[in-house]
């Protein structure tokens, strides 16, 4: 028998391969990629849930789940270690005589309908595990109720020149949805689908079951479930969101989102005590900055030893920057050793890498405009030899 009904539970899609992040996701799922000095990407939707009063989160994993599973654990860092509800890892499993990976986002939820039914919720919140943003989902839920909606989709205004990158939602003056455009060349509006949905569970369950019976379906929310709801004239509304939001599915966007944290003109604030981003604490010692160090406009997380120069960069936990090394406009992930004399410009360095003496990675924007050649990337655990040169756009 149910202990009690949950009004709304969240289902967090965290099983993507993240192939566009290349070497950074060769051994880990995209939501487990480090971000912002001390976080991982999944910290943001998990913290949003807690801050929104949602205490039951199913985390649907698939690709390279070991690091992500260990990181989430029992959900304790986010206050999601509960006997009833809390954080629950939901990998694909055999429902009959054959095992099957999640075929698409809709199929992932379909395979876990029994989990949802355990809590008999009235509403289900669907989230993606690869976005950086702070959002109070309880306000979106109130909006969903006020509109008497069957489905509510969070939408953010994007520049017209970027609409071709997104699913676009066209709405009436009351925000009711009348059309979807998937990455249009010439969009009718600038309302981009954020991949955040609230459904009435009874409605969603019905459409998931119908979709699973369709042999021609891609079993995807954007391609199948949402258009079918619209075709059947269900009540669908867009929820306007005006805060910071970034899809960090590419190397460029991941670099940009990290740089946004040290840009005072960008509206994302990690120091807000009323809406904290929680993370797993590894109890590193305080960072040490020597007399030879020079640090400007940068984030330096705990457990670091800085003896060189760091400018406009994000240095994650446990990094060592030796004397004479210079790091500019770069994202240096956890437990990296940058040896004496190394020069790093416009780079992302993956976890546990070693950068040899006098190595040169990337190139200064004084020589080239960054948009013309892109960033250099060194993969997780990679060793760059003394004096080695890694060119812009090169991914090792």
TrEMBL record:
<dbReference type="Pfam" id="PF00483">
    <property type="entry name" value="NTP_transferase"/>
</dbReference>
<dbReference type="GO" id="GO:0005978">
    <property type="term" value="P:glycogen biosynthetic process"/>
</dbReference>
<dbReference type="Pfam" id="PF24894">
    <property type="entry name" value="Hexapep_GlmU"/>
</dbReference>
<keyword id="KW-0547">Nucleotide-binding</keyword>
<dbReference type="InterPro" id="IPR011004">
    <property type="entry name" value="Trimer_LpxA-like_sf"/>
</dbReference>
<comment type="function">
    <text>Involved in the biosynthesis of ADP-glucose, a building block required for the elongation reactions to produce glycogen. Catalyzes the reaction between ATP and alpha-D-glucose 1-phosphate (G1P) to produce pyrophosphate and ADP-Glc.</text>
</comment>
<keyword id="KW-0548">Nucleotidyltransferase</keyword>
<keyword id="KW-0067">ATP-binding</keyword>
<keyword id="KW-0808">Transferase</keyword>
<comment type="pathway">
    <text>Glycan biosynthesis; glycogen biosynthesis.</text>
</comment>
<feature type="site" description="Could play a key role in the communication between the regulatory and the substrate sites">
    <location>
        <position position="101"/>
    </location>
</feature>
<keyword id="KW-0320">Glycogen biosynthesis</keyword>
<dbReference type="InterPro" id="IPR005836">
    <property type="entry name" value="ADP_Glu_pyroP_CS"/>
</dbReference>
<comment type="similarity">
    <text>Belongs to the bacterial/plant glucose-1-phosphate adenylyltransferase family.</text>
</comment>
<feature type="domain" description="Glucose-1-phosphate adenylyltransferase/Bifunctional protein GlmU-like C-terminal hexapeptide">
    <location>
        <begin position="293"/>
        <end position="366"/>
    </location>
</feature>
<comment type="subunit">
    <text>Homotetramer.</text>
</comment>
<dbReference type="InterPro" id="IPR005835">
    <property type="entry name" value="NTP_transferase_dom"/>
</dbReference>
<protein>
    <recommendedName>
        <fullName>Glucose-1-phosphate adenylyltransferase</fullName>
        <ecNumber>2.7.7.27</ecNumber>
    </recommendedName>
</protein>
<dbReference type="InterPro" id="IPR056818">
    <property type="entry name" value="GlmU/GlgC-like_hexapep"/>
</dbReference>
<feature type="domain" description="Nucleotidyl transferase">
    <location>
        <begin position="10"/>
        <end position="261"/>
    </location>
</feature>
<keyword id="KW-0119">Carbohydrate metabolism</keyword>
<keyword id="KW-0321">Glycogen metabolism</keyword>
<dbReference type="InterPro" id="IPR029044">
    <property type="entry name" value="Nucleotide-diphossugar_trans"/>
</dbReference>
<dbReference type="GO" id="GO:0008878">
    <property type="term" value="F:glucose-1-phosphate adenylyltransferase activity"/>
</dbReference>
<dbReference type="GO" id="GO:0005524">
    <property type="term" value="F:ATP binding"/>
</dbReference>
<dbReference type="InterPro" id="IPR011831">
    <property type="entry name" value="ADP-Glc_PPase"/>
</dbReference>
<dbReference type="InterPro" id="IPR023049">
    <property type="entry name" value="GlgC_bac"/>
</dbReference>
<feature type="binding site">
    <location>
        <position position="102"/>
    </location>
    <ligand>
        <name>alpha-D-glucose 1-phosphate</name>
    </ligand>
</feature>
<feature type="site" description="Could play a key role in the communication between the regulatory and the substrate sites">
    <location>
        <position position="62"/>
    </location>
</feature>
<feature type="binding site">
    <location>
        <begin position="182"/>
        <end position="183"/>
    </location>
    <ligand>
        <name>alpha-D-glucose 1-phosphate</name>
    </ligand>
</feature>
<feature type="binding site">
    <location>
        <position position="167"/>
    </location>
    <ligand>
        <name>alpha-D-glucose 1-phosphate</name>
    </ligand>
</feature>
């Amino acid at each position: 028998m149910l202990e009690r009904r949950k009004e709304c539970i969240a289902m967090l899609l965290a099983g993507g391969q993240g192939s566009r992040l290349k070497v950074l996701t060769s051994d880990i799922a995209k939501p487990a990629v480090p971000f912002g000095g001390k976080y991982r990407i999944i910290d943001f939707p998990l913290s949003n849930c807690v801050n929104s009063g949602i205490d039951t989160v199913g985390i649907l994993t698939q690709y390279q789940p070991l690091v992500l599973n260990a990181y989430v654990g029992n959900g304790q860092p986010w206050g999601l270690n509960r006997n009833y509800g809390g954080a629950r890892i939901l990998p694909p499993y055999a429902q009959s005589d054959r095992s099957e990976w999640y075929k698409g986002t809709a199929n992932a939820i379909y395979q876990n309908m029994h989990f949802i039914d355990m809590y008999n919720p009235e509403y289900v919140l669907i989230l993606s595990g690869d976005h950086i943003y702070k959002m109070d989902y309880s306000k979106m839920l109130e909006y969903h109720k006020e509109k008497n909606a069957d489905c509510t989709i969070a939408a953010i205004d994007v520049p017209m020149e970027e609409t071709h990158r997104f699913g676009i939602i066209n709405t009436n003056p009351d925000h009711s949805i009348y059309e979807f455009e998937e990455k249009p060349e010439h969009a009718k509006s600038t309302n981009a689908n954020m991949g955040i949905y609230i459904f009435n569970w009874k409605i969603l369950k019905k459409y998931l079951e119908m979709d699973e019976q369709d042999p021609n379906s891609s079993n995807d929310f954007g391609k199948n479930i949402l258009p079918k709801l619209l075709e059947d004239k269900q009540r669908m509304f867009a929820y306007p969101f005006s805060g910071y939001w970034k899809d960090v599915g590419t190397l460029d966007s991941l670099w940009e989102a990290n740089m946004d944290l040290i840009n005072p003109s960008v509206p994302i604030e990690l120091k807000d005590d009323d809406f904290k981003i929680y993370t797993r604490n590894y109890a590193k010692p305080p960072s040490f900055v020597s007399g030879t160090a020079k640090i400007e406009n940068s984030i330096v997380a705990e457990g670091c030893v800085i003896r060189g120069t760091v400018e406009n960069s994000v240095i994650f936990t446990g990094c060592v920057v030796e004397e004479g090394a210079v790091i500019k406009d770069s994202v240096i992930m956890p437990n990296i050793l940058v040896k004496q004399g190394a020069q790093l410009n416009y780079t992302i360095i993956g976890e546990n890498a070693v950068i040899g003496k006098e190595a040169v990675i990337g190139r200064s924007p004084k020589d080239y405009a960054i948009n013309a050649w892109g960033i250099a990337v060194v993969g997780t655990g990679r060793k760059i030899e003394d004096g080695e040169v890694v060119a812009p756009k090169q991914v090792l």
